[in-house]
Amino acid sequence: MGLEGKILEGARITEGEAREIYGWPLAKLGEMAHARRNRAKENHYDGRGKEVVTYMVDRNINYTNVCDVYCKFCAFYRTEKDGDHYVLSQKQIDQKIDELVAVGGNQILLQGGHHPKLGLEWYLDLLRHLRAKYPQVNVHGFSPPEFNHFADVFGMPLERVIEKFREAGLGSIPGGGAEILVDRVRQRIAPRKCNTEAWLRVMEIAHGMGLRSSATMMFGHVETVEDRMEHLRRLRDLQDRTAGFTAFICWTFQPENTVLKAEKMGSHEYLRMQALARIFLDNIPNVQSSWVTQGPAMGQVALQFGANDFGSLMMEENVVSSAGTSFRLNLEEMRSLIREAGYEPRQRNNEYQLIEPTGPELVA
Description:
The protein has a single domain (12-347), classed as Aldolase class I (TIM Barrel), CATH 3.20.20. It is built from 15 helices and ten strands. The chain has helices at residues 3-9, 15-22, 26-40, 90-102, 120-133, 144-154, 158-168, 183-189, 196-208, 225-242, 267-280, 291-294, 296-301, 319-322, 331-340, and strands at residues 52-56, 58-62, 107-111, 138-141, 172-173, 212-219, 245-252, 286-288, 309-312, 344-347. The radius of gyration is 20 Å and the shape is globular. Residues 319-325 have low confidence and may be disordered.
């Protein structure tokens, strides 16, 4: 069986084969990725036989912009000496969630900088409060670098930190902070952030406790194509052991307003990597289109390059927009883009189960 046949049959490909596939014409790569997508989601239809593309109505809440990691690719972080640094109060967070619930949202993405002074009880009190007041809203929060930071600041084993957060109300973990899971690359772009093994260990521990997570990749800076392949392999190997990743999301580095400088990659490279990831990550069922960084039209095209999910309405986004890229959609625009691509838009939860919308059709 040739390589194309292996892909169409759903067989696992090697890193060497992935490197070969990477060089294929973009149209052919997209065709192969779309075939893999259809194989993975072959039973994902609505009641009328229309193929579904899912989306989430959630809100990013960055509880603090104070961070002592100083990543070269980040334009969002501040130090405590900066006049515009902040830590949100529970009241401010509640107001944001109230606005989310009013439009039918069911999840918050709760992330922040590595604040050197916030204590364990600050986080646990917040999670307990959110669970009690908003039981219908999943808290998708705290990336692996944050958890490694917490373990250091609290002087507590990583397993115990994650367990305490889960007990207090954490529902799932975002895949942020992965960037490229190759230490040589991480040392160049974020030397104070956790290394590859530490990132993966958080996810393995969390999956073992029943916390599901997403997996991500930010590419297009100092890494090589081989580094990207290694990143995908590390994710696939962990997924073989835990089956805890629900989805994969990739995007290109946004260089505006950041210390790290690199030529901005075009959408063709984004589509190439997303398609390759769909083929290589045969054990991760969902791939999200990244319209937030690529724009709505390219997010729509990505549905033909392996994606089966349009990501989030994202009522609020601060980190990517701080780096100079800002795209916005309302709910009806998102649903229209999905319909124009030939699919039925359906809202989902974090487990990728279809749910009935509870908010208005239009969201400003």
